[in-house]
Write a structure and sequence with these properties.
The complex is a heterodimer of chains A (527) and B (281). Chain A is globular and about 100 Å long. Helices cover 58% and strands 9% of the residues of chain A. Chain A is built from 21 helices and 6 strands. The termini of chain A are far apart. Chain A has a 4-stranded antiparallel sheet, covered by helices on one side. In chain B, a hairpin with a 3-residue loop joins strand 1 and strand 2. Chain B has a two-stranded antiparallel sheet with strand order 1-2. In chain B, helix 2 crosses helix 6, helix 5 crosses helix 6 and helix 8 crosses helix 9. Chain B has 2 domains: 117 residues, Cytochrome c-like domain (Cytochrome Bc1 Complex, Chain D, domain 2, Orthogonal Bundle); 100 residues, Cytochrome Bc1 Complex, Chain D, domain 2 (Orthogonal Bundle). The chains are: A alpha+beta (527), B mainly alpha (281). Chains A and B meet through helix 2, helix 7, helix 8, helix 15 and strand 4 of A and helix 1, helix 2 and helix 6 of B.
């Protein structure tokens, strides 16, 4: 029987079988077709099997069949929407793995982060990726909105897409903000306390909303659990739902808008025809997406490894100790800035609500049918003005702006901050020679004759301290300053460093003291 | 090459580069994790030092040398070498410290030498038992205390005085004091467990800005805000040592000084101590 089977028959049979299986898996594309697509060749069969995929495959049926050539120009979209979605998937994957190591209770949360850092291979990498992905998603979704605004792409039939985009911007911020609390360190605890206290300012239901969010008057076990569930279940589900709607509108209904100059500008019919040419999803758009994904992953990994990006982690949350410089996450600095300008309810709730309402109604407020920048001077001016205002408000939202700290407190906070390293903690351990050093009394050079190589770093910090004190004396809010730096050997590998300033407060003429001490261990090396 | 091919090519290169970076990063993971462990341990000791100072030093001394008649020393060779066998503790030193600090002690295990502060002899510190501290904070304190192990020396426990003790009546007539003996009494009682302005030494010595305790005692009881009943520098020191709540120098919290010295010192001891302190000008 074997003799009757020719080798070529067998080969053809096997190839047919493989081709059949491949067609089932790819939902319509055979081996030859796959090869042609990868090579950028035209379709091998008619009707085009690359379109068949879009009707038979679930994953591909939500993808676009084609985009118009003009809309894929890099300088038109900058791929901002793509990268926002990319970051969302990065967050989903890293987040899923991080969930394995995390326990949402105040007793365990911080400890689980410490364990993640010192006991889980690639734990730090995952955490850094998750954190930088979150920042990226907020930045890119905002830039995406700016782009849509300036190209006038929110108009007419795309107004509903704009609305879903706004919802997504809100969800992105909520995702990022709810994740902020989870490490349960000082940074997290106080940023979220500041953030949720804005909710409290809402009229009528403010107190209830705050209670609902925090689970108690102050954030505790209940609050952490609620934020955790918001972060890992509620918001991601909502985001997936709205992203689907948003994306479907773009990919299957209206496509990406053409650049305004090609759509309504003074360009030749030929150019318009070229701009309207279809670019198929398979293989052009798909390969471009794969390429962008690779590029994004590469840049992300580069940033957290060689780039040195590191997710911050302060000391464990302590409801009893309010840090000196409490600040909201950076994407809420503008709101913090507004709060400094006036009443909490007006600035923190009513104006932001109006702002959101204006953005929602934008397609209906802006009745100008044109999309080119030159034809919509008012919209462009308003857009630029809004951006500048946002930047300025964010600057005003910084803790350093507008809040006058006592100079003594400021100096000591700058040299020896409550969190993080600061100049004093960065002095090499060996150079911390025990002694009491007084500004203006102790000579600032050759402070450690007993050490073989002296203590240049200690001297530099002491010089900085002396200079800051001299400057404060000149400004005159505090005068007659006696400034001390005391270093004590406290334990094996442990020193105690005290900064003390005794001064006359020029406001009430009283003699006052401000002092702070820290302990510094030899092995403490990181932020 | 078509655009599709170029993109597939660059994408492949990028993914390989990414994998390579992750691989190289992964080679150092063991070292990195060890480094984080060290750093976190260092932070635990730093925070423990802070907490020890605010919660424990009042009774166990700022340097953990203990206060005779009150609380045992922790920065002590005996504590690290023999304490666990003495009480047949099966766990580690850290466990023992965490357990003791968490739940406190209802009664002292060594009532003759270290009776503690009464009942309970040591309060509970864990929030689980009505104390002020979280579990991780207590573990940090334990890390700090265990860090003394390498350097701890033997702390001599002073003998309990024989004969009549001085009591708390400051008008009591005291015998003639001996300066030199007074200094040994001060050392024996480990006053510097608390009365210390490091790095200059005991707090009763003169500093750049203040004279010694002798001169301070002479002026303090004549000041307007003085609320005690002393009529002389000797009585002022007498009162300060045995009636610790009669007058507290402004700037210091109440109840810092143990009120038990009246029952620990003989007339002669106290007279010597006062003579010594008055000589420091």
């Amino acid at each position: 029987m074997l003799k009757t089977l020719k080798f070529q028959d067998m080969r053809k049979k096997i190839m047919d079988m493989v081709d059949h299986r491949v067609r089932i898996i790819t939902a319509g594309m055979g081996l030859d077709e796959l090869r042609a697509a990868m090579r950028g060749d035209p379709p091998t069969e008619k009707p085009n099997p690359r379109f068949k995929v879009h009707t038979t495959s679930f994953i591909f049926h939500i993808r676009p069949r084609y985009y118009e050539a003009g809309s894929t120009i890099l300088t038109h979209t900058f791929r901002l929407g793509f990268f926002t979605a990319f970051f969302f998937f990065v967050e989903l994957f890293t987040g899923l793995i991080l969930m394995v190591y995390y326990t949402p209770s105040p007793e365990k949360a911080y400890e689980s982060i410490l364990l993640l850092m010192n006991n889980v291979p690639f734990g730090k990498l995952l955490r850094d990726l998750h954190r930088i992905g979150a920042e990226g998603m907020v930045i890119f979704s905002f830039l995406h909105m700016m782009r849509t605004y300036f190209t006038g792409s929110y108009k007419k039939e795309r107004s509903f897409t704009w609305l879903t985009g706004l919802v997504l911007l809100g969800l992105t911020m909520l995702l990022s903000f709810s994740g902020y609390l989870l490490p349960w360190d000082q940074l997290a605890y106080w940023a979220v306390t500041v953030g949720t206290s804005m909710v409290e300012a809402a009229p009528v239901f403010g107190e209830q909303a705050n209670l609902l969010l925090r689970g108690a008057p102050d954030i505790g076990a209940n609050g952490l659990l609620r934020f955790y569930l918001l972060h890992v279940v509620a918001t991601p589900l909502a985001a997936i739902w709205v992203i689907s709607i948003h994306y479907y509108k773009v990919s299957r209904e209206h496509g990406i808008s053409l650049p305004a100059s090609l759509e309504e500008g003074d360009v030749s019919a030929e150019k318009k025809r070229v701009a309207k040419q279809r670019i198929d999803f398979i293989p052009d758009l798909l390969s471009h997406e794969v390429f962008l994904t690779c590029l994004g992953l590469f840049l992300l990994v580069l940033a957290v490894t060689l780039g040195g990006y590191s997710a911050p982690l302060e000391s464990v949350a302590n409801p009893q100790v309010t840090p000196m410089d409490t600040e909201a996450p950076w994407y809420f600095w503008w709101l913090q800035g507004m709060l400094k300008l006036g009443d909490k309810t007006i600035m923190g709730i009513i104006i932001p609500t109006i702002l959101v309402a204006v953005l929602v109604a934008l397609p209906y407020i802006d009745r100008n049918p044109y999309r080119r920048l030159v034809k919509r001077p008012v919209a462009v001016a308003v857009g630029i003005l809004a951006m500048l205002t946002l930047v300025m408000l964010s600057y005003m939202g910084l803790p350093q702006w507008g809040i006058e700290a006592n100079p003594a407190t400021r100096i000591i906070q700058d040299l020896m901050p409550e969190e993080g390293m600061g100049p004093v903690r960065e002095i090499p351990f060996e150079q911390l020679q025990a002694g009491a050093y007084e500004v203006g009394v102790t000579p600032g050079t050759r402070m450690c004759p007993n050490l073989d190589f002296g203590c240049p770093e200690l001297e530099a910090v002491f010089a900085d301290y002396s200079q800051r004190v001299a400057e404060a004396e000149q400004i005159g809010v505090i005068t007659d300053i006696q400034a001390l730096m005391v270093i004590e050997d406290w334990q094996q590998d442990l020193k105690k460093i005290t900064l003390r300033m005794i001064y006359t407060d020029s406001e009430d003429g009283e003699r006052k003291t401000y002092e702070r001490h820290i302990f510094r261990h030899r092995e403490r090396v990181m932020e | 090459m078509t655009r599709v091919q170029i993109e597939i090519f660059i994408g492949t290169v990028l993914i390989l580069a990414t994998s390579l970076i992750v691989l190289i990063y992964g080679l150092n993971e063991e070292g990195r994790m060890a480094e984080y462990e060290l750093d976190q341990h260092a932070r635990a000791i730093e925070e423990g030092a802070e907490l020890f100072e605010s919660q424990c030093s009042r009774c166990h001394g700022t340097q953990g040398m203990g206060i005779p008649g009150l609380c045992p020393p922790l920065n002590d060779r005996h504590f690290f070498d023999q304490r666990l066998q003495e009480i047949s503790w099966s766990g580690s030193m850290e466990d023992y410290i965490v357990a003791t600090a968490s739940s406190g002690r209802l009664v002292s295990t060594r009532p003759e030498t270290f009776p503690g502060e009464g009942t309970p002899a040591m309060p509970s510190f864990s929030q689980s038992f009505g104390g002020p501290l979280r579990e991780d904070q207590i573990r940090n304190i334990a890390s700090f205390i265990v860090n003394w192990e390498q350097t701890a020396t033997v702390v001599e426990v002073p003998e309990i005085p024989v004969g009549e003790t001085v009591g708390t009546d400051i008008t009591r007539q005291l015998p003639e004091g001996d300066l030199a003996r007074g200094e040994t009494v001060a050392n024996r009682l480990v006053c510097t467990a608390c009365h210390v302005t490091a790095p200059t030494g005991p707090a009763w010595l003169a500093t750049d800005t203040e004279p010694g305790i002798g001169t301070r005692a002479e002026t303090r009881y004549t000041q307007e805000d003085y609320q005690g009943s002393a009529q002389s520098p000797e009585q002022y020191l007498f009162e300060s040592i045995v009636q610790t709540t009669a007058y507290v120098v402004p700037g210091y919290a109440e109840n810092l000084m143990p009120a038990t010295y009246g029952t620990q010192l003989t007339d002669q001891d106290l007279a010597d101590l006062i003579a010594y302190l008055l000589s420091l000008r």
